[in-house]
Amino acid sequence: MNKHGATILVVDDEQEIVRALKRGLAAHGYSVLAADSGEKALEVMSQQRPDLLLLDLLLPDMSGLEVCRRIRAASNIPIIVLSVKDAERDKVEALDLGADDYVAKPFGLNEVLARVRVALRRIAQPSSGTAPRFQAGPLAVDFAQRRVLLDRKEVALTPTEYDLLKVFIMHRGKILTRQQLLKEVWGTHAHARTHSLHVYVAQLRQKIEPNPQHPRFILTIPGVGYRFNDEVDC
């Protein structure tokens, strides 16, 4: 699926925002649906089956978090949360519930478009868990042989470092909270290993980043977690 022709559902009760998003997204080739409440969003989801959801967390009838939970239980549609800047706790909870990304209000159209492109590209690509090889700039990973190369030189990773890198690549372009990463790498009882995660991320950066002080791949999302960026130059 390419970006043109993708259908985006905007869920927000602020009509000025809905109009602006409709106008901007349509100008870039997207079809746009709108809902001003959680119940309406769930109804449109079941009837129209859009390709991506832009979801405000403050809705008149139910929390956007509840909408996110219900939709994620039935669908893998990309969900980008629209949130006010000071709602950090809500952002983290939405991401833990399965949202892919968030855009803080007030936002610019270019930022929204960039996040939409990343999310649609991610679902259009085959899962990295089944693809035999991954390449982004100087970084290459051969999943069949568990080999990692940087500038064509093999990088020696510990098993945990490799597992962490694989999780990042599987969810590339998506914000991952610390809790999500802990669960993916160490299992459901790993909530006490937050410091270990920080250490392993630092170690992994030392090994795969051309300049660990200015990461190109593993980006920190302050107060939330990390995002793996595969949009790097060769």
Compute the average pLDDT.
89
Rounded to an integer in angstroms, the radius of gyration calculated over CA atoms is: 18 Å
Q: What distance separates the N and C termini?
A: 25 Å
Summarize the helix and strand pattern as letters: EHEHEHEHEHEEEEHEHHEE
Strand order of the largest sheet: 2-1-3-4-5
**Top-tier CATH class of the largest domain:** Alpha Beta
Helix content: 40-55%
Count the domains: 2
Defining traits:
22% strand; 2 domains; 234 residues; 41% helix; four-stranded antiparallel beta sheet; Rossmann fold; alpha/beta
Structure description:
With 234 residues, this protein is α/β, with parallel strands linked by helices. It has 2 domains: 7-124, Response regulator (Rossmann fold, 3-Layer(aba) Sandwich); 133-228, Arc Repressor Mutant, subunit A (Orthogonal Bundle), CATH 1.10.10. Helices cover 41% and strands 22% of the residues. It contains 8 helices and 12 strands. It has helices at residues 15-27, 38-48, 64-74, 88-96, 109-124, 159-170, 178-186, 194-208, and strands at residues 7-11, 31-35, 52-56, 79-84, 101-105, 133-136, 139-142, 147-150, 153-155, 175-177, 218-221, 225-228. The strands form 3 sheets. Strands 2-1-3-4-5 form a 5-stranded parallel sheet, sandwiched between helices. Helix 2 packs parallel to helix 3. The radius of gyration is 18 Å and the shape is globular. The model has no long low-confidence stretch (mean pLDDT 89).
Short description:
This protein has 234 residues and is α/β, with parallel strands linked by helices. Helix content is 41%, strand content 22%. Strand 3, helix 3 and strand 4 form a beta-alpha-beta unit.
